[in-house]
Design a protein that fits this description.
globular, alpha+beta, six-stranded mixed sheet, single chain, 19% strand
């Protein structure tokens, strides 16, 4: 929260606003009377300086529009400007806008012909068949009226001192945007404006207003919204935003009654001599005490932190802190958190506002940290349904306020069941599922959730039980990510189960065993269906609580419940139980963890090795699954898919039996006519390409360290991107690395070292590079070509080799898209 106080003057907002308007009027008065172009240039220079240091809100372009609209000597001044336009650098003059503005003034159009404009633009502006769009309004910054004219892609504003001038110039009934804001309007304007145009408040006989006052901590703004009604009919709404609480209070004339200041900190810093009306204002209890106000305490029963015996008697392990991993183009981030146990974080809350504040801060922390598209919240949020509801609503609201798009996937934990001993499990699940669906969130409970065509879809437990496994496999192949999970229950645990009060009175031991058996049976079906896919198994309780089976390679297991954080990922067995927040009482303990999921899939995974005839659509679907962008619109005579030991090669055949290997949508002629020749020699061709592996290794290391200093690191062919303009070319022949800046493919500036490139072209990355030199072994040991000074380079040969290397790099996705010839000189692929 920003206070905005000074020692001499505390609350002068209204006065400052009036001074600002007078200041603008002073400029306008000067502009109208200018008699020569030098005066205009001088004042525009001053305006430009004031605008860029934040003293005024109107820029030079706006004042230029005002000048061109209202100056009485415009013909003389424009004539003077057109004789030497380059002399007056502070005059921003758009020729197309001027033609549009003065379209009915022959004298001024004649003067404008001295300025350059393309024949195409001039023809469009003179074309009477082109639609002309006109809008009228009241400008909230300058407090002038305007007419905005738009034609094709050109628009301009003509300003007027008052509404009467605007009406006289247009002589029609006007619909004026923002007319409601002109508090100085006094004329009888009923015949000038359309009936649907809202009038300023003082024109209504039974006007009443409703004021909303609040602090928005997401954007750090104090906000006043005034809704106006004529009796009970809503007319208009006005919104005011303030950076400082001093301006906010002054605008409200010290009246903070009914203000929502729950999320506002440091209210105790307001000077004690400031007399505020705080009637029914909402704020944290500690500030109510500062202002000597009484408050109603919350029922402590809902905040009583309850531990079950087996949890209370075990020490919790701390969160495992892992650095965010770098992802490749085929991977996405999934973030997760479990065992929040809100009640423990709310123990010191005295009022409902205190609860709202802490839940809001936790949700803000979670959404702020969330950079992934999918967020998993894995059970034991809290045992009180009302608090759970507040948490869900606040998550959604903050996500919306922060303009993020997140798919929330929840499981329940044993604590969520405690409050409902008289309800069946199906009824409890239905209650939580209904709540989450109201906020476009999803509950995972013995069902499958998957992402398809930019939306989440579900296979219910009943549908999963009924599905034919082969059909389910075909259907789910190509969907990613896929989630299966739920509570899991603790039927397989002989030590920690329902006998220990795990579910209080809601689930018995017999029910728990049956629920775990049912869940495990569905899990076994998932294993059979997705044995070579990579679904996320999201369960509140770890696998040993509900199954005797071992972890499946490539499956991703995310769990909680134990409060003993553990993590294991060797690239084969992947277990993430490392972000169980537990019974910590501090909000600062709430953080997200992340994992990487490879979203590629193989549409031909069930095909055995061999040669197959396929369709163009099958080929495009395969590339889509491998995350390969491709524009392939051909319909070949024949299209072959060659599969061998997990590698693929695609070859088309024309009617005259010419074979061509495919690289995306590009074709390359092959010498042999027999498709079986290429199937027989596939492994040899793949081995030849893998001779470039040492080169790829250098590229990957350079890319990784470019990312570490904040750069792109994207690899395409022989080039590693630093940012949009800066790159490193790694020569595949001698492994020299050339840093360069490129305006385009022809115009390139080569630099003798990466340091010199960054120092001149990207100061931020240069500083990061200098600070982290000890941790950048690859960048520090680059082999540079013999360039002493920066040099212009116009040849495009580097792109020829880069395109070829780009084709060979498809092998890393299991695609052979170029056919190397082992008989080439020195087996050098780049000579092919």
């Amino acid at each position: 929260m920003k206070l905005g106080y000074t020692e001499d003057e505390i609350f002068k907002y209204d006065c400052a606003e009036q001074l600002k308007r007078k200041y603008y009027n002073k400029f306008v008065d000067k502009i109208i009377k200018f008699e020569n172009i030098s005066e205009v240039n001088k004042i525009m220079k001053k305006i430009d300086k004031l605008y860029h240091n934040g003293s005024i809100e109107l820029d030079v372009e706006c004042f230029m529009d005002i000048f061109l609209s209202l100056n009485k000597n415009i013909e003389k001044i424009l004539e003077e400007y057109c004789t030497n336009p380059n002399k007056y650098k502070y005059i921003f003059f758009n020729v197309k806008e001027a033609y549009l503005r003065f379209s009915n003034n022959e004298k001024l159009l004649k003067i404008l012909k001295k300025l350059p404009i393309s024949k195409k633009d001039l023809d469009i502006l003179n074309d009477e068949n082109q639609h002309l769009n006109v809008e009228y309004g009241f400008d909230l910054k300058s407090h002038l009226y305007y007419m905005e004219i738009e034609k094709v892609f050109t628009s301009t504003r003509i300003y007027y001192r008052n509404l009467e001038e605007l009406h006289l110039d247009n002589n029609e009934t006007l619909n004026i945007k923002n007319l409601f804001y002109d508090m100085n309007l006094k004329e009888n304007i009923s015949e000038w404006i359309s009936q649907e145009c809202p009038l300023p408040p003082h024109y209504y006989h039974h006007i009443r207003s409703e004021i909303i006052k609040k602090y928005d901590d997401i954007h750090d703004k104090f906000i006043v919204i005034i809704n106006y009604y004529d009796e009970d009919i809503f007319i208009f709404s006005r919104k005011f935003e303030f950076n400082f609480i001093a301006s906010f209070i002054a605008f409200l004339n010290y009246d903070l009654s009914h203000a929502d200041l729950i999320y506002c900190d440091n209210l105790d810093k307001i000077p004690h001599n400031v007399k505020l009306n705080l009637t029914d204002a909402k704020m944290q209890s500690k500030y109510l005490e500062v202002f000597g106000m009484h408050y109603q305490t919350v029922q402590k029963q809902k905040l009583t932190p309850l531990k079950i015996n087996i949890e209370a008697n075990n020490d919790e392990s701390s969160i495992i802190l892992r650095e965010k991993e770098d992802r490749n183009e085929d991977e996405i981030y999934i973030q997760y958190i479990s065992d929040l146990h809100l009640e423990f974080k709310l123990q010191d809350c005295m009022t409902q506002e205190d609860i709202l504040y802490k839940i809001h801060k936790m949700c803000y922390q979670i959404i702020s940290e969330c950079y992934a598209k999918f967020l998993l919240i894995n059970g034991d949020v809290c045992h009180d349904f009302e608090l759970y509801t507040l948490f869900v609503k606040e998550l959604k609201k903050i996500m919306y306020d922060m303009k993020k798009r997140i798919h929330f996937i929840f499981t329940l934990g044993n604590h969520e069941l405690w409050e409902f001993p008289s309800m069946s499990l199906d009824e409890i699940i239905g209650k939580y599922k209904l709540l989450l669906s109201q906020y476009d969130m999803y509950l995972l409970h013995d069902n499958i959730l998957y992402y398809d065509n930019l939306q989440m879809k579900e296979i219910s437990p009943l549908e999963l039980d009924m599905y034919n496994e082969e059909e389910a496999r075909k259907y789910l192949n190509g969907k990613s990510p896929i989630f299966f999970g739920g509570i899991g229950f603790s039927g397989k645990s002989s030590q920690f189960n329902a006998y220990n009060g795990l579910y209080r009175l809601t689930i018995s031991r017999e029910e728990e065993i049956k629920l775990s058996e049912d869940f495990d049976n569905r899990y076994q079906k998932i294993v059979r269906i997705m044995k070579d896919m990579n679904p996320i198994i999201l369960t509140h309780m770890p696998i040993e609580c509900w199954s005797d089976e071992k972890y499946i390679p490539n499956f991703i297991y995310v769990s909680g419940h134990t409060h003993r954080n553990s993590f294991s990922d060797d690239g084969n067995i992947r277990i993430y139980a490392d972000n169980q927040i537990g019974y910590s009482e501090t909000i600062s303990s709430v953080h997200l963890a992340s994992l990487l999921l490879n979203t590629t899939y193989d549409t031909f995974i069930d095909y055995k090795d061999g040669v197959y005839n396929i369709t163009s659509e099958q080929y495009k679907n395969f590339l889509r699954g491998k995350n390969v962008r491709c524009n392939y619109n051909r319909t070949p005579y024949k299209l072959y898919m060659l599969k061998r030991q997990g590698y693929y090669c695609f070859i088309s055949e024309s009617k005259n039996h010419q074979l061509c290997i495919l690289h995306g949508g590009a074709l390359k002629k092959l010498e042999q006519k027999d498709i079986n020749y290429y199937y027989s020699h596939m492994l040899e061709a793949i081995d030849l390409i893998y001779e470039l592996e040492p080169y790829y290794h250098i590229q990957k290391n350079v890319s990784k360290e470019i990312k570490a200093i904040g750069g792109s690191g994207y690899i395409h062919g022989c080039i590693v991107d630093i940012d949009y303009y800066n790159h490193i070319y790694i020569n595949p022949f001698d492994l020299t690395c050339t840093p360069y800046f490129a305006w385009n493919m022809e115009d390139k500036m080569l630099y003798p070292s990466l340091s010199k490139l960054l120092e001149e072209r990207n100061e931020t990355l240069f500083l990061n590079y200098k600070q982290g030199t000890k941790q950048l072994p690859s960048l520090n040991n680059l082999k540079y070509p013999a360039i002493q000074e920066k040099t212009m380079y116009y040849d495009t040969d580097i792109y020829q080799y880069s395109r070829y290397l780009n084709k060979t790099q498809r092998i890393q996705k299991g695609i052979l898209s170029i056919w190397p010839d082992k008989n080439n000189t020195d087996n050098n692929l780049l000579t092919n």
